[in-house]
Amino acid sequence: MKNSNSGSITLGAIAAALTTATMLLTGCDNPPDTVRIGVAQPLTGNLAELGQDLHNGVKLAVAELNKEGFKIKGKPVMLEIVAMDDRSDPATGKEVAQKMIDAGVVAVIGNLNSGVSIEAAPIYAAKDIAQLAISTNPKFTQLGLATTYRLVANDTLQAKAIGSFAASQLNATRYAVVDDGTPYGKGLADGAAEQLKIAKKQITLRQSFDDKTTVFDELAGKLKQNGVEVLITTLNDFQVLALLEALKKIEYTQLNILGGDTIKTISMLKGTEMIKGLYATSPILDAKEFVNGKLFLTKYQEAYKKEPAYGGHYTYDAMYILAGAMQRANSASPKKITEILHTFDGYAPITGSMKWDSVGEQRYGVVGVYAARKGVWDLQLRSDRW
Fold first, then answer.
1. How far apart are CA 218 and CA 226, in angstroms?
2. 105/86 Cα distance (integer angstroms)
């Protein structure tokens, strides 16, 4: 087992956590020497870069809190992370949730994928364990569970942003809508398509794939055949990059692509010069857009020797929120943490504040619309400003 200020714990140490887990889950309020926080994210596979970034945000916060001397009820407490790979797979997410409970975690920061979060949520709820997810599908908080908390705006707002921007700003007559078949992707694409219909825009192609497909020659041909001027898609970044290569082969690159937050990545910027325009909507606002964002970016780069890939500043803040909730509750009991979070307007060092409504929706969620230009994602509009 590795036990240091970085707050890491291996799966081999899970058995040693069972006694602590029993004490916490039966409501004992005497602070333990160690409190374990779960991080359930895709740490391998196509979305590993995003999942690792979310993990890194938690690690950075835990290291700082431990260094400062985190206390509950005046007692020094060491924070440790139990990190597990959900592989972007709902079935694996359910297995991970049970393992997290067995490991004695008091709260979980996870998951990235909506389909995984939705499947894992009832397992955490059965043990009163708060689940702080960056997933955006509205169904996550519609499960009727007291333990679901969303860190960002949901896809209802994001769909409005996609549809309204595509209809009013991209000035086209022929649109296509393509999704990745997941609860996140299909739900967001359906919402965006509905917004286009309201704006009386013509959708000449509507198609679904899975979230692993990378062969898009047939789709590229259909886009050309239908004279599509704007493609709205919720495919992942690696999928859109593969599509761009297919479009390049048939010399059909004079179109705009508008995606969801899974293409607003550093990797996707490689496609900037390949088509007429590349845009993304995201409830994950860049760290640099916040007053304290520069400080976070500096600390992140010093710790990991690279730029953040996605939303590590949100999980960094989530860890500080959990720490504040434990201190407010004077307890590391999962049930008391969950109860406090529903009434807590917590200190979020980077994004400013996090507060949830009765079902766990983020009250301060905002969606941004970005354009890929000169190797960066350049903010065009924000939902709190239109």
1. 12
2. 16
Count other C-beta atoms under 10 Å from residue 18's C-beta.
12
The encoded tokens of residue 134 equal 């960056």
Residues 54 and 140 in one domain: yes
CATH number at residue 28: 3.40.50.2300
DSSP code of residue 142:
G
Cα distance between residue 123 and residue 291, in whole Å = 37
- For the entire predicted model, the pTM comes to 0.85
Distance CA 333, CA 313 (A): 25
Domain enclosing residue 65, as ranges: 8-154+288-354
Extract the tokens encoding 214. Answer: 């990378």
Q: How far is residue 118's CA from residue 132's CA, in Å, rounded to a whole number? A: 12
Q: DSSP E strands: which ranges in 313-367?
A: 346-348, 352-354
Determine the distance from the C-alpha atom of residue 176 to the mean position of all C-alpha atoms in its chain, rounded to a whole number. Answer: 25
Encode burial over 53-63: b for 16+ CB neighbours within 10 A, e otherwise.
bbbbbbbbbbb
The pLDDT score that the predictor gives to residue 171 is 85
Phi, psi angle pair for 161, to nearest 5°: -65, -45
Whether residue 125 is found in the same domain as residue 165 = no
Give the integer Cα–Cα distance in Å for 2 and 80. Answer: 10
Stretch 278-294: mean pLDDT: 94
φ/ψ of residue 98, rounded to 5 = -65, -40
pLDDT of res. 31: 92
Cis peptide preceding 154, ω within 30 of 0: no
pLDDT one-digit tens code per residue, 21-58: 444 444 457 899 999 999 999 999 999 999 999 999 99
Burial of 357 per CB tally in 10 Å (0-12, 13-18, 19+):
exposed
As a whole number of angstroms, the distance between CA 152 and CA 111 comes to 12
